[in-house]
Write a structure and sequence with these properties.
The chain contains three helices and no strands. With about 90 residues, the protein is an all-alpha fold. The radius of gyration is 35 Å and the shape is rod-shaped. The model has no long low-confidence stretch (mean pLDDT about 75).
């Protein structure tokens, strides 16, 4: 049975008139929409923050005949600074 206007002229009720006449139905449908939306949000995969691992670089420097302090100051430290300044785009 189709819903009709209260004046009985046979015209079908507007969609919003159903919810104006039956506010409990409107409330129940609103809750169903909210619950379905929350369930959809929980089941969505998040791709905005992908899993990533930190890169590790190992560099061995050998300078025959030099002290550890000299190798660290003139070879190892500049290499470390160069590695840290590299960025992937």
């Amino acid at each position: 049975m189709l819903p009709f206007n209260s004046n009985g002229d046979g015209f079908m009720m507007k969609f919003t008139d159903i919810f104006i006449r039956r506010p409990v139905l409107a409330l129940v449908i609103s809750f169903v929409i909210i619950i379905a939306g929350l369930q959809a949000v929980r089941s969505l995969n998040v791709r905005q923050y992908p899993r990533s691992e930190n890169a590790t670089i190992t560099v061995s420097t050998v300078y025959i005949g030099a002290s550890a302090h000299l190798v660290r100051g003139f070879i190892t430290t500049p290499l470390e600074r160069g590695d840290c300044s590299c960025r992937r785009y």
